[in-house]
Amino acid sequence: MKQLTPAGRARYFRRQLIDRLMGGLCVLAAGIGLVLLALILWMLFSKGMGGLSLDVFTKTMSQPGSGGGLANAIIGSLLQVGIGAMLGAPIGMMVGVYLSEVGKESRFAQVVRFVNDILLSAPSVLIGMFVYQIAVLPFGGFSGFAGSIALAIIAMPIVARTTEDILRLVPQAYRDGAVALGSRENEVVRKVVLPAAFGGILTGILLAVARIAGETAPLLFTSLGSDTMSLDMTQPMASIPMAIVRYSNTNYADWIALAWTGAMLITVGVLVLNILSRLSFAAVSKQGG
Length: 289
Prior knowledge:
Layout: H1 6-50, H2 54-58, H3 71-102, H4 107-121, H5 124-136, H6 144-169, H7 172-180, H8 185-196, H9 198-213, H10 217-221, H11 240-248, H12 253-288
Helix pairs in contact: 1-12, 3-6, 3-9, 3-11, 4-6, 5-6, 6-9, 7-8, 9-12, 11-12
């Protein structure tokens, strides 16, 4: 290393000082974020466990002081999120396959990619209002199916973006080898590219489900909520997010406790889905390696 001039040494020490200062600020910011997250989780679980009982899973929403639960809200959320994922995930996968394997950098593909990015950043309340216009007003009432449509629209761009990004990571040699063996383009995608990227696509689907599980605004305009247990998707349907909104805006202690319990259940569900997505991606990556 050549000898530095006094001016060069000053610049060197200044860069070292700035580097350490910025590194320290990053560590401080990360520490503050972790502390805040720990405080939120501690409050959530400490208050949520207080209202957790068997009644939460066996009884429906009822009047204050009557010992109600969240059974209808849990079932309603499972139905709406499940159907929303079943509607949004296949469409998102097809869009991702088109952008990665068919359209690529064509003008139409660029338009589709741009619209997908808009949907990714669109406020969920706007999607709820849109579905209200197309699936609630024309049919004369709120319904669980309208809620599923709103959740599907939110999940679709997440799955599309994840699918496109994962498919682009599949080595080109896989495609070239399949073509050299006489496979048609659709066979290359179905039998080579998609199986190789299945773990990453599954991760995207699980992340999309985790995203829509806690959405409230779209359901306010679509499924609205209900106090009764119902499996009829053509009628208003309860959900955990709507139950949290309703119960948290009261002065009744038992309702507030149920609101905290519902928030805890959603958090645990999202945490489980994130863990599953990471495990599935890690398992597929290990097999690929």
